[in-house]
Amino acid sequence: MLAGSACLSLFAQSPQPESVNDVLAAYTGALGGAAAIDRIATREVRGTVGLHAHVTYYWQKPNKVLRLSKRDRISFDGSGGWIAERRGRTKRLGRDAGKRLEADANPLRYVHLREMYSELGPGPPETVDARAMHLIVAPNNLGTTKFYFDAGTHLLRRIEETGETSAYFKTSTDFLNYKTVNAVQFPLRIVHSTTEPGGAKEDLRVSKVIENGPVNPAAFSNPRADPKGR
Questions:
Q1: Structure pTM?
Q2: For residue 5, what pLDDT is reported?
Q3: Of 5, 31, 136, 187, which residue is 20 to 30 A from 105 by alpha carbon distance?
């Protein structure tokens, strides 16, 4: 009985938005507003994955991403991508990997959820780490994609997918440790996980974000191009 009372108390802390539009409007406002987000044309994100693996992401509006590490270069040009290993041939990038790249390099992209999904609806309230969440749900090929927005901060906390890449396993992306970066709230930790056996967890910790710097457009299609055009 106490647990149920605590859950009801959590949802009572903030009025529930009545529609998908209300949730997205609150989210956009919590990030810093549409104008502050739309002014960003390029972004460089530096960080580490795991304990010591340094990575750098270059993003160009609307959805081009390049990820550089000591092991490889991975690019997505909005419709397809490639992986160029330091010692090996270039391979095509899988669809799920492209979506993960976009989430890491441009975690603010979900303000455009209406443009990304043809069908969206509200989901029943849930909790994540004992915090009340407002849900937006989008059907996919074999299941649903659920977007969890913190009812108190209105920021995106988690994306959970079942059916996007498998009907049997669930993939999750958690957005944590939001901090103000040039007047916009940016998550400095992004964690990808899956219930698929053998699936690796990836924990990105962001150390620096540079916005509207020079980015070489050729770098998203040419594995040998310098991302800054030097």
A1: 0.87
A2: 47
A3: 136
